[in-house]
């Protein structure tokens, strides 16, 4: 009986260590993202092929290095990231993800490491030329990426008030394509990918007024406080020594 108790204690110790380490397999730190959100995460070269790079990818790699782990990036739909973290398929989620009260009900968040701005992309000669047009005229269709804050804020501010109809897409690029083909009247999305989309799509522009300013952070399962503390410690060290800002400046040069 004593031998059995000792075996059980050893097994319990192993399970506890594994759950606190933040790595489920082969000392990996698995990051869930949606790699269609430049400059935060995107494929180097052809989409869906090759290496995922960007601000989030590089920050995550440095965090993994500090934790003595190997980073593995899992590319999934944006609205599946929180579920992947909750169910343990991924250790953490980084995808230009904003801290919101709704998300805090499902996951925990690290310290914020970047500020995002939601903007509105429109046709240069289209019916929307200011934010006031959206709110005062009403009746427009708005393209968004499903479950992003662009989706959430547009729903709360406009669709729920009967001022607009929201059209949801799996990728921001799909929403922008819908705008270029006249299927939607505008797109609400983060400013940095918005600039990339406008640069390669003639006839589009970003409205001058910011729609929403928000903070980006890393999401981690609520029951994984040990990993949250380790990631937060590593992240704060990287912020303090200037590494995070250096990465951001690499992808978003000062104007």
Distance between the termini: 71 Å
Mind telling me the C-alpha Rg? 21 Å
Q: Describe the largest sheet.
A: 6 strands, mixed
CATH architecture of the largest domain: 3-Layer(aba) Sandwich
Assign the CATH class of the largest domain: Alpha Beta
Which properties best describe this structure?
255 residues, alpha/beta, D-Maltodextrin-Binding Protein, domain 2, five-stranded mixed β-sheet, 14 strands, 24% strand, globular, disordered N terminus
Sum this structure up briefly.
With 255 residues, this protein is an alpha/beta fold. The chain is built from ten helices and 14 strands. Strand 3 (41-43) and strand 4 (52-53) form a beta hairpin.
Describe the structure.
This protein is α/β, with parallel strands linked by helices. The chain folds into two domains: 19-115 and 215-251, D-Maltodextrin-Binding Protein, domain 2 (3-Layer(aba) Sandwich), CATH 3.40.190; 117-213, D-Maltodextrin-Binding Protein, domain 2. It has helices spanning 2-21, 55-66, 81-86, 101-104, 131-136, 149-159, 172-180, 191-200, 225-240, 243-251; strands at 28-33, 36-37, 41-43, 52-53, 70-75, 92-93, 107-109, 114-123, 140-145, 164-169, 186-190, 204-206, 212-216, 219-221. The strands form three sheets. Strands 8, 9, 10, 11, 12 and 13 form a six-stranded mixed β-sheet that branches. Helix 6 (149-159) links the parallel strand 9 and strand 10. Helix 2 crosses helix 9. The longest helix has 20 residues, at 2-21. The protein is globular, with a radius of gyration of 21 Å. The termini are far apart. Residues 1-23 have low confidence and may be disordered.
């Amino acid at each position: 009986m004593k031998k059995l108790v000792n075996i059980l204690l050893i097994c319990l110790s192993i399970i506890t260590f594994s759950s606190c380490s933040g790595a489920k397999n082969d000392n990996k730190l698995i990051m869930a993202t949606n790699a269609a959100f430049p400059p935060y995460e995107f494929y180097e070269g052809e989409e869906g092929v090759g290496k995922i790079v960007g601000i989030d990818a590089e920050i995550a790699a440095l965090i993994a290095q500090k934790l003595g782990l190997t980073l593995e990036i899992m590319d999934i739909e944006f609205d599946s990231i929180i579920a992947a973290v909750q169910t343990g398929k991924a250790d953490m989620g980084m995808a230009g993800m904003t801290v919101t009260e709704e998300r805090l009900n499902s996951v925990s968040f690290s310290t914020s490491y970047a500020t995002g701005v939601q903007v509105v992309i429109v046709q240069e000669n289209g019916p929307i030329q200011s934010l006031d047009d959206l709110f005062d005229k009403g009746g427009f269709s708005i393209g968004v990426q499903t479950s992003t804050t662009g989706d959430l804020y547009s729903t709360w501010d406009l669709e729920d008030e009967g001022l607009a109809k929201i059209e949801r897409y799996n990728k921001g690029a799909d929403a922008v394509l819908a705008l270029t083909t006249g299927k939607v009247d505008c797109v609400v999305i983060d400013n940095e990918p918005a600039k990339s989309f406008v640069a390669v799509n003639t006839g589009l522009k970003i409205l001058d007024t910011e729609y929403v300013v928000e903070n980006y952070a890393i999401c981690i399962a609520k029951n994984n406080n040990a990993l949250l503390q380790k990631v937060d410690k590593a992240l704060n060290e990287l912020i303090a020594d200037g590494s995070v800002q250096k990465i951001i400046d690499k992808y978003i040069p000062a104007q």
